[in-house]
Amino acid sequence: DPATIQEARDLFVEYQLAGIIKTGCSFDDPIWYTTDEYANVGLHFSFNRFSYEAYSSLFSLSFNDFLVHVKAFLLSLFGRLALSTLQSLLLDLRHIVDTEPSRIFAASEEINISCPNHCGEFFLMLPNAEESQDINRLIDAMESYVDINFGSQKCVQRTLASFETYFLFD
Hints:
By secondary structure, this protein is mainly α.
């Protein structure tokens, strides 16, 4: 809603004053230059306007409104996630918009999404997400990608020593 978007704009200024977002950037810029203690990270909001047309009716948002929502969502994650993770999330959202919705709904392994949980969280926060069947299908697809990503990792479970031995080490 407009109040949340204004809060995001205010947060942007706060992060600029804190030095996390470089002072040469504005909220409406297509790239935000950010920094943390370890690296400088550019957050590129260069979504393909023509690819977004397939999603505009699904989200019920204009292209510019969609960008504002993405920016507001990313600002809500500052401090919770590393800047490199925010960059990966942004790449995932751009990749989703560049992919035909029917391919995303199919939740195939050939579409590589590294942060499907956060993508689903973003889609859930869009206006009219509760009423939209298509957004719910998109969220379900993101949950399938979580299963695909987790299932594709060949995690070997560690075998721990018996509980009593931990006390022996004090």
